[in-house]
Amino acid sequence: MLRLHHHPMSPYGRKVWTAMVHRGDSFDSAEIELGVGALQAPEFKAISPFGKMPVLETEDGPIIESTSIIEWLEARGPRVLLPEDRRGAWAARHFDRLADLYLVAPMSTLWWEPKSEAAKETASVAATAWQIFARQLEVRPFVAGDRFTLGDLAAAIATDYLERLGVPPPPPIAEWKARCFAVPAMAATLDAALRYVEPTLARRAASLD
Which is deepest, 6, 24, 190, 192, by most CB within 10 Å? Predict the structure, then answer.
């Protein structure tokens, strides 16, 4: 049985969790408790040496890094989040990397280090990334074509978080985000994440007053 170590609020953890729900994978969900040193516990670092999540325990051993986990699942089958055609697969992988580097990363900085110099660049970095996504979405509902793929996954999660942090997306991106969250797995994992997101954002706002 696959075992996923993650937290519902983590964008990278949600990326894998949502992917597995969407794919219909059978797995045990091991929710990591935050703020108690669980990521640095020896038993956790035995499967995730850098003390980071998510990590998926598999018959091939533990796998770290969200995209690597999803690639492993897709190679194992069935292939759900990576299109079979070359162009579609390239688009899904390309926009996944853009999302992790230019939406998730700056969003995380704004979330956890709101007063840092890097956080001041979040809106402009996100705006540039959204422009690239918007061009791709001009003639297709999702970045790799007619269906939701890996290329939409992390970007939609990060866009939702950015909006909650006061960085709203432009209309074409907002419309695409709505399509993404109409996917049942996206809606379900968002509902679970909000139990943590909403109180965390409230504490964050209070600390900035």
Answer: 6
